[in-house]
Amino acid sequence: MQNKAIGAEFKNLSQDGMKKYNDLAKKEKERYKKEMSNYVPPSSDSDNDDESDDEKPQKGGKAKKDPNAPKKNMSAYMFFSNVKRKELKKSRPDLKFGDIARAISVEYKKLSPDELKEFEDMAKADKRRYAKDMEGYTPPPKSEKSEKTPTKKAKKDPNAPKKPMTSFMYYSTENRSRVKKENPDASFGEIAKIIGLKFRELDGEELKKYTSKASADKERYRKAMEKYEGAPKSPKASDSSNTSKKKKKAKVEVPPESESESDDSSAASDSGSGSDDSDSDSDSD
């Protein structure tokens, strides 16, 4: 659900907003090219044919995380959050998880430039530590079993009705920009977590606003689908459905009869047609 809301927000970005992330992506791509030019993949030893349990991929084709991989660097906000969370748990043990996250966010925004610099320096030092650790780190070779074979996704009909949004998606779309302003140093994932916490703490009246929107959108989708399924499909959609039917038929196609079976069937048909002859022969005898 959160991924759908994030996707909807991304589509609604302005050109300036999109440029910011495109620039970040380009920088990341350049960084990756530079690192890959100096990277030498480890050679796979023939002695290590038998995989250990740790190296086996998990269900769903996702490879297990390498326990020897360097710990990722933390942001200034994460360093502050770790320190402040311990203080709040001791001083105010009655606070819920969401209240603690909200209090940390408020306290972080109140930091003076000198106080903020302390945590920013910690983040910079941790970033250097991570870069240094990654230089000496050699990732384990990927096994053939862990590589997922891509499955062909069915083409979506452009005329199909837009799927309904949930109450959480409505809430996320409406409040994401405000949460980003309140937490400027929070990462993409951290913002999603904060929105989720805030949504769970809505009271009955506030929640009703979004559940009503979701119910109305669900009804809109139901009516649209009735109209869509009753309408004649576009040529492309009908062609794709025909080809899929042909494929299904091909799977259940009856195998050709063997020579012995065809001989038996022809003999059976001959016996039916020649029953009078056999009776006449027996009478003559």
TrEMBL record:
Residues 1-40, 70-138, 161-229 form the HMG box domain. Pfam families: HMG_box (PF00505). InterPro entries: HMG_box_dom (IPR009071), HMG_box_dom_sf (IPR036910), HMGB (IPR050342). Residues 276-285 have a biased composition (Acidic residues). Residues 265-275 have a biased composition (Low complexity). One of its GO terms (cellular component) is nucleus. This is HMG box domain-containing protein. It comes from Ditylum brightwellii.
